[in-house]
Amino acid sequence: MNFxxxxxxxxxxxxxxxxxGALLIPALQRRGAKVSHFQATQYINQPKTLVLDVRSAExxxxxxxxxxxxxxxxxxxxxxxxxxxxxxxxxxxVCASGVRSSSAVGLLSKAGFTQVxxxxxxxxxxxxxxxxxxK
Length: 135
Description:
alpha/beta, 5-stranded parallel sheet, 7 helices, 5 strands
């Protein structure tokens, strides 16, 4: 108890609490489930899996996963009817690095989609592994 009561130890205690909280913030901000390249490939090879690319039109034109549906993230909420039939199917969201696709997972989950995943690392990571894309 004497340790906590000294003035200098308050500083160390506060520093420990702040740094511990800072470590928790990224974990608490993660939205939705992620899938690895291997898991995504398994899902993609199953019928009725929807690959949803939420990047910009320019990014999509530069290369995307085969049979991917393109709806940019800013338009997703307004265009949900286009993918409504996939509400009970697996949906894999894709962006460049995984940030926008995680936001899309949150949006789709709120809209009632039950099996929504974000591609871990995005299309950049997919390409770096030598996995195929189409233009």
